[in-house]
Amino acid sequence: MKTLKLEVGKTYRSREGEEVKIVRKDNNKDIYSCQGDNGYWYTESGNWWWDKEHPDDLIEELPGTRHTFS
What would you report as the CA-atom Rg of the chain, rounded to the nearest whole angstrom? Predict the structure, then answer.
């Protein structure tokens, strides 16, 4: 399985099938630095709970979700 690196503006699918868009990254946070539009905070690799698999973990990037603003 490919390791994710969450990026602001991209949308990912959780283990439960929920689509979550990353809306914010806070570099001042130690472990959970990426916030989804669902209000949850994730590790940069998509984990909701850092030491075991969890249904809210983000497991894959959805295609075509990169948005560029000028």
Answer: 11
